[in-house]
Design a protein that fits this description.
Length: 389
């Protein structure tokens, strides 16, 4: 076997909590690595945290002012000469299908640092990312390492409900983020794709704290249950509406925006059942899409939902936004959605989908009048379309 195959076999056989230790041993033996570190992005996507240093010694690294952060943002391997040492640090993105987990840093003797070796290490970083996602089923180590402070119970429930924060495929790229990351309670997003279609859902449960989180959990799982039965989005909404009404008898409801994309054609069906908004950027034009407003889920017994349709074109960018974004108010009393939201979408047009939500939520934090950010969700989808044979 070659060394890359040996490393892959060793990491796959490692205990869930011992991935980095195993990789460190393997890279030292196979490549002469002098040091190996893993930094994971925190929940708010503001810093990178070391996996294996004690908390008292673990100074987070800025995503904006560190070489690791720059590699994370660019999603390209970077390197830096080590001062007073004949060695080079290689910063390698740890990313799984668009989901940016963190940065693997490998220090090599300068004489051994070649482009071919960096290519092999890039593959190793990809392998590590996949193994972390599998290992998280059996250990809290990686989720614990990503926290700069304790999550509220409601936030814990919401983060566990999410599919990921980014996803890429041949036809599309998705990025999404929730704020306040450590205290979110009612907002959520979900997606699923197969060879023929992509389904997106943005939900916002009414109320605060655990009540809102429990409500959203019920709605998201009801929608997933219907989706996995192969049911269309209108019936997904109807069945989730009935599940919520049966539980709460109309006293609580969930605002929902459901979209289904035909990957081959770009045809989109949408059900607008509440407050989340849909915006589209086509070229330099940005506008909110006018949709038929229907009842939020769970408000009345046996509500019926209809699907509207529209067409996306290659190069289109769609943004799904909760009311915590567009209703945020400036010190002068102007809602963010009146003018500034369109400007923010324009100003981020050159960013990849995975980084757009963080950029818009950063601008929103500077705009709003209150010190505490209400639940705010941004989901960005870039549509590439399917290449014709």
């Amino acid at each position: 076997m070659n060394r890359r195959t040996d490393i892959e076999a060793a990491v796959r056989a490692a205990a869930p909590h011992a991935l980095l230790a195993t990789l460190r041993t393997q890279l030292s033996a196979a490549y002469g690595a002098l040091a190996v570190e893993l930094h994971l992005a925190d929940y708010s996507l503001r810093v990178l945290k070391s996996l294996d240093r004690p908390d008292a010694e673990n100074e987070p690294l800025s995503l904006h002012h560190s070489p690791e952060g720059r590699a994370f943002d660019s999603q390209e391997p970077r390197e830096q000469q080590v001062r007073h040492n004949d060695a080079v640090d290689h910063y390698l993105p740890v990313t799984v299908r668009g989901e940016r987990l963190g940065i693997l840093t490998v220090r090599l003797p300068r004489a051994l640092s070649t482009p071919e070796l960096v290519g092999e290490l890039t593959h190793v970083a990809d392998l590590l990312g996949h193994e972390i996602l599998v290992a998280e089923r059996d250990t809290d180590l990686y989720q614990r390492a990503r926290r700069t402070s304790r999550l509220t119970l409601a936030a814990e429930m919401q983060w566990q409900l999410l599919p990921a924060r980014a996803c890429t495929a041949a036809e599309f790229a998705i990025g999404a983020q929730l704020e306040p990351a450590y205290a979110i309670h009612g907002d959520n997003f979900d997606w699923a794709a197969d060879g023929e279609e992509l389904t997106l859902a943005v939900t916002n449960g009414m109320g605060e704290g655990i009540q809102a989180s429990l409500l959203t959990n019920l709605a998201v799982n009801a929608l997933r249950n219907a989706r996995r039965a192969g049911i269309g989005i209108a019936d997904q909404a109807a069945l989730a509406d009935q599940a919520l009404y049966d539980q709460h008898r109309g006293a609580s409801h969930v605002s929902t925006l459901l979209l289904r994309f035909e990957l081959a054609t770009g045809r989109v069906g949408v059900v607008d059942a509440g407050s989340p908004q849909l915006w589209i950027q086509r070229g330099r034009s940005v506008r909110r899409m006018a949709l038929e407003a229907q009842l939020p889920l769970g408000m009345f017994e046996e509500s019926q939902y209809t699907v509207q349709e529209f067409q996306v074109e290659p190069g289109d960018r769609l943004l799904l936004l909760s009311d915590g974004v567009y209703d945020a108010v400036s010190p002068l009393g102007e809602a963010y959605g009146d003018r500034m939201l369109a400007r923010a979408i324009q100003s981020t047009r050159l960013l990849p989908a995975a980084t757009v939500p963080r950029a818009i939520l950063g601008e929103l934090a500077d705009y709003r009048v209150t010190e505490t950010l209400d639940d705010a969700l941004v989901l960005c989808l870039d549509w590439f379309g399917r290449q014709k044979d």
